[in-house]
Amino acid sequence: MRSVGSADIFCEVIDNFGDIGVCWRLARQLAQQEKLSVTLWVNDLARLKHLRPAIDARALRQQSDGFAVRDWQAGADYTDYQPAELVIEAFGCKLPEQVVQAMAQQALPPVWINLEYLSAEVWVDGCHRLSSPHRTLPLTKYFYFPGFSELTGGLLKEPWLDASRSALQQDEAVRAAFLQSLHVSVASDTALVSLFCYPSAPVDALFAAMQSGGPVLCLVPQGVAAEAVSRFLQQPALAGARATHGQLSVAVIPFLEPDDYDRLLWCCDLNFVRGEDSLVRANWSGRPFVWQLYAQEENAHFDKLGAFLSRYTAAMPAPLATTVERCWHFWNAAEGAGFDWPAWSASLLPLRAHNASWGAQLAAHGELARGLVEFAGKIG
User: Fold this and answer.
1) Could you tell me if 353 and 370 are in contact, meaning their C-beta atoms sit under 8 angstroms apart?
2) Interior CA angle at 184 toward 183 and 186, to 5°?
């Protein structure tokens, strides 16, 4: 067993806020819960600042949330790099050659992890923790997969999350106070929905469907689906803007910091989420959700969608599973019969019960940051 007291995380921002969101949460978890000395290397500090406004996007070095943040730029000189005991390259980003050389020169080289993208595909179970020796240097890289089974690394989850979520969801005054901080109030007979999606999502069709039936209030962070939201509002989609057509009201709220985004998910009756980070948070929310995947070449993301739905709907009654599958496929492909809002409205309570047990099942598989540290400690 080796002692692991420090970690470097290298993050190359590709998928808008998803990559940096995952890496920020992992850095915080390793620093605050696992008590490691952590440095997060980021190539796009402006994107991190959008999540954490206290970040200085021009600073080469700074502290945030209990860990160090370093500006990581291509072509910079890293000859003075001192490796941590655990080095994580997130999502297959390529480490600078000087960094790799410095790792190889250590008497005990650091544990080198390629933290992979999240997927529910079956092949992930067999590839988790596989090793790949460097062709010329005395280094070995290990592939570490987050996932939805006990054969993967699990998902990031803070130890305080369950208690905080229960405190909000079980106390209407706490829920109302949080929504009021966003300048939002919602009547007891109104379904509260959050919308976080990519520009390709069929938002116009969703809004059209929601205008009939029971009253709905849809909260959209500023900058999300801006064109579709502006069309509905008939004005720029800026924080504070709001309009009502039929039974649907749409309100634009500020872009939230990660912990407040969690609280928003906990407050809502239905959450539309996108990418990896917000999917994980939706899984912990205990609330119904609809996931939009990051589109990949040759529609490879539909394999990921099918794999997740296969696991997620396995314990659902057949009619409920059919409703979920049709909606999710429409949301990701904008093809099919459209968004069946009456069916979804009728499914919200059964889905809430299902998601409570689903979240407990995922939690039983282990927590990602804890698993990383334990795995690193076993590498000789």
Assistant:
1) no
2) 155
Q: pLDDT (tens digit, 9 = 90+) per residue, 284-300?
A: 999 999 999 988 777 77
Q: CATH number of 6-156+366-375: 2.60.40, 2.30.30, 3.40.630, 3.40.50? A: 3.40.50
Please return the burial class of 13, using the count of CB atoms within 10 Å of its CB with bins 0-12, 13-18 and 19+. Answer: buried
For the stretch 226-249, what's the b/e string if a residue is b when 16 or more beta carbons lie within 10 angstroms of its beta carbon? Answer: bebbeebbeeebeeebeeeeebbb
Domain parsing of the chain, residue ranges? 6-156+366-375, 161-363
Task: Provide the annotated active-site residues.
Answer: 19, 276
CATH 3.40.50.2000 fits 161-363, yes or no: yes
CA distances from 196 to 46, 120, 222, 236, 279 (A): 20, 21, 10, 17, 10
In tens, the pLDDT along 33-71 reads 999 999 999 999 999 999 999 999 999 999 999 999 999
Domains 6-156+366-375 and 161-363 share a fold: yes
Is residue 8 a contact partner of residue 84, using CB atoms and an 8 Å limit? Answer: yes
Separation CA 221–CA 159 (nearest Å) = 27
Best CA proximity match to 280, nearest among 379, 180, 359, 173: 359
